Each structure stands twice: as structure tokens, then as C-alpha cells.
Amino acid sequence: MNIRQIEVKGVHAASDVRARVLIIYTGGTFGMTHDNSGALIPFDFASIVEHLPTIKNLGLAFTVFSFEQPIDSSNISPEHWRLMGKTIYDNYTDHDGFVILHGTDTMAYSASALSFMLQGLGKPVVFTGAQLPIIDPRSDARENLITALEIAAAKNDDQAIVPEVCIYFDYELLRGNRSKKVESMQFDAFDSGNYPPLAKAGVKIDYNFNAIRKPDRETLQLFTDFETNIAILKLFPGINKQVVEAVLSTNELKAVILETYGSGNAPTLPWLIELFAKSINQGVIMVNVSQCPGGMVVQGKYETSKELKRIGVLSGGDMTTEAALTKLMVLLGSYRVDRCKELFTLNLTGELST
Known about the structure:
Elements: E1 3-6, E2 19-27, E3 32-34, E4 40-42, H1 48-51, E5 60-71, H2 78-90, E6 97-101, H3 107-117, E7 118-119, E8 125-128, H4 141-153, E9 155-156, E10 159-160, E11 165-169, E12 172-175, E13 180-181, E14 190-191, E15 199-201, E16 205-207, E17 221-222, E18 230-234, H5 241-248, E19 255-260, H6 270-281, E20 285-290, H7 303-311, E21 314-315, H8 321-334, H9 337-344
Helix pairs in contact: 2-3, 3-8, 5-6, 8-9
């Protein structure tokens, strides 16, 4: 797979632009148009001005990259994350902010992944997309892109206002690694149940400065190695031993994310605890995240989570499944198991309340 720089027709960079923004077009509903038969296909992003003429009036200079073959976000993979991360890293110095146009289905996974890949980020990386294609008269694509560009360019005393990876959708800016897709039929597709919005867009963009995270280092560092031998095991009433054994016996398994009940609770079945303990003793990292969209794991609060804590299951606190998964992928791609366990429990990029 490749990414290519494209020239946007109808936009000419002026010498007095207020910011330079790099756009990465990956595909998704946002950029769909009709072919001769009426079927929806990805459009040529070079013609974006035809669909969104007001983009010329933002006072911004644009650099635009597009996937050679725009994809449905259901097909996203770590290879695509590497491509996005490297494009940002290679063009970081010359731009004030970055906007990634992405399908909604896996946007929270991609935003979470990039938050862990781009350590020391000091500029905005804003994911956005649309529930309706930009050609649709009622499309949310126009407002989402225009405001995402404004946020990517926003500065205060020559410093980026939102120097982190985030998602802008339906008038709200959310931290990327706190977000989940919660709607497929309404415009408010995303929510961050355990963290307040970073901004709300009305007549003006109202930033929640207390919620915005500042860089913890001066130099940007890019992590591009991923470990994908990870499983997600969602617990449910009636789960049987054969199912759990099948997951835990996966060849080369490095980590398991347990999606538990409430504040981190699980059945106290002896065989279940025994299987978990056996995997942990064999070097598999096992972490506990809640199935609830809000709240957090507190292992030991109830009797039904004490055993998980005793055998060495790590608490995921109030992390989303998307954040826990991509965090493990990046950590296991770069560190030994013991160091991964240590770093997983730390708040690295705002994904975890402390």
C-alpha cells in the first residue's frame, strides 16, 4: 500500500497564510460520490473545492496526501497506521496541524493507535469523517471538515491549542484514545464517556482548556512496530470452558483483553480462574476493561474481581477497549513483557485517569 501527495485544484497558497495544515485522505463515507451506474465510489480528493468552495476562505495552506486506494475503514490495519504516522512524522516540522479523513467504523481504533505512536506530540492531529457522503445535500461532511481544519490550525501565543490526537464530530472535539463509536444512524457518532469534550463548536469554538493535555516532552518520537497476537475475550453469562480454552490456546498469543462486567467483575468459576492463571504464568499479559461505556475497573472492590487481581490480571482502569488494544500493540511491539506490564498501568497519553 502507498500514499501519494496530490494537488488540490482551486486552492492557491498565499504568502500570508495563518497556518499550514496537512490532510490525509484515507477513504470512508466522507469522500463517496456516484459513478455512472449510481453506485457509491471514492471520489477524487483533488476536486474537494468543487464540493466545498468555502475551504478557499480559511486562510490556510494545504498539503494533501491520499491513500493510493482509498479504503472502507473496516479494512484498516496497523500497516495503514504506520503510513499515517510516518506521513505526519516526516512532514511534522513544516506543518502546524494535521487532519485525517477516515471512515467512522474504526476511527476510534486509529485515533487511539496514533496517540501511542506519536509520543511527545505538540501539534493537533484531528480525525474526522461523515455519516453521509459529501455529495448528499444533508451531509455532515462539510461542517466536520471545516471545523477540523480550524482546530488543526488554532494557536494561542504561537502554540497549538490542542496538541494531541483527537476526533472532531458533530460539534464536539473528543480525545482520540477516550472515544468510542456509539451511533451508526445519527450524526453524533462518537462519545467519550469517561472524559469531557476538549471543545464544543457553536458560533465559536469553545475550548475546554482544563481538559486539554500538554506535551510531556519536546521531541516527537514515532513508534511503528505492532504486536497483533492479541485477543479480546468478552465475558457473558453461560460462557463455557471450551470457548475460553480455544482463545487462550491461540498460537503465539501475547496478550488478552478481558471485557468484564461493571467495575471489573467476572464469574468466580474455578476452571475460569485456573485457565487465566495458567496463561499469565506462561507469560501472556491479561488486562481487565469494563464492558460499560462509562465507569472504570476497580479490581477487588467486589468479591468477583478479587481473584483476577490475585492471579495478576492488570487493571485497565477507565480505558476503552480500543485504547487498551492499541496500547498493548504498540508496547509489545517495542518492549519486553515486564516493561509492557509496567507501562500499561501508566497514563501515557491521556488514555487513563490517575
